[in-house]
Specification:
23% of the residues lie in helices and 32% in strands. It is an alpha+beta fold and 127 residues long. It has a single domain, classed as 60s Ribosomal Protein L30, Chain: A (2-Layer Sandwich), CATH 3.30.1330. The strands form 2 sheets. It has a 6-stranded mixed beta sheet with strand order 1-2-3-8-6-7, with helices on one face. Strands 4-5 form a two-stranded antiparallel ribbon. α2 links the parallel β6 and β7. α1 packs parallel to α2. The longest helix is centred in the middle third of the chain and has 18 residues. The protein is globular.
Length: 127
């Protein structure tokens, strides 16, 4: 199958050797998003909740550019530098997703690019 590269200026541009998303057939692989503001490519100001919201907004922008939405996400991976923020992720996620929720993993990591506290990637299935 042919790979289609997904790109939008409504999400941060890649800061490395990757695409914002790649579509193969009906499946879209969304690259990890950190809380960068697309217009400035700077980290969002504010607390951890602001970081989490910015990441979901970035994922949503890439999902939209691929012709879908967060409702089409089948698998979500969440990387946190401090797992004590897990309940906050759940709280904010409930504002972006409706049931049935996607499959998900929450993984504690030592560090993330640009000293972010959270990063998320996803797999989306378009029907």
């Amino acid at each position: 199958m042919k790979k289609e590269i997904i790109s939008t200026d409504k999400a941060p541009q890649a800061i490395g050797t990757y695409s914002q998303a790649v579509k193969v057939g009906h499946t879209v692989y969304l690259s990890g998003q950190i809380p960068l503001v697309p217009e400035t490519m700077e980290m969002v100001e504010g607390d951890m909740e602001a970081q989490i919201r910015r990441v979901f907004d970035n994922l949503q922008a890439v999902a939209n550019a691929a012709g879908g939405s967060l409702a089409d996400v089948a698998k979500l991976n969440i990387f946190l530098t401090d797992l004590s923020h897990f309940p906050l992720v759940n709280q904010v996620m409930a504002e972006y997703f409706d049931q049935p929720y996607p499959a998900r993993a929450a993984i504690g990591v030592a560090s993330l690019p640009k000293e972010a506290g959270v990063e998320m990637d996803a797999v989306m299935e378009l029907i």
